[in-house]
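Side project, low priority. Logging it here so it doesn't get lost.
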Amino acid sequence: MSWEHVILVIIIGIICGFINTLAGSGSLISLPVLMFIGLDPHTANGTNRIGIFFQNIVSSWNFFRKKVLDVRMGLILGIPATIGSIAGAFIVLQLHERAVEITVGIILLTMLIPILLKPAQWLKKMQTEVKQKRWWLSIILFVFIGIYGGFIQAGVGIFLLSALVLNSGYDLVKANALKVFINLLFTPFALIVFISRGEVDIIIGLVLAIGNALGAYIASNWAISRGSSFVRYILIFVIIASAVKLLLFP
């Protein structure tokens, strides 16, 4: 790994850590870069998760330190997500990559509709406890989100935010904190699957993690200080950009 590649990977890691913490889909940037420096698609997919893991450690700790992270709820919702992520990590090796990209792009654009049409629900400070009648839906949602996160990771933060805000009733700042914590819980399990298949470059992954962690630290502070409105605008931009990238520029 040349010094030029080291610098490139760290810079990309910072950008992706920032985007992932505020919204999601930062992996749509890091995955092409990892392939550009010589990794095959599956190894890039596995290696990218090392950076994601360290990024989520930093951002989760920062949110916890600022008292906006609901650890108990994160653990509860993280269990079905973790189960799903293990299944998703095994599934990805059997799927055609372009088919996955098209599907994800369409889903992202569909998710943009409630964000644009119901801004009050995204911005309003709501009760931060999941209603009893929605428990069953939360479990189902987080299993499927975990499956998605296990096989591709890119965009999983947007799905987590959507479920936490629209179904569970969190405002965007607290949902962001829960999002990174739940991601932290299930990422190691998917990563283990990739490692067991020999689809991870540890050295490149650790270099990427340096950048991801720094970007996550900056972004978690911004999310707290600037509030839900700021995060919503970032989220809308990232969804549109991610969908365009997946659908039009494979």
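Brief comment: The chain has one domain: 3-248.
Revisit when time allows.
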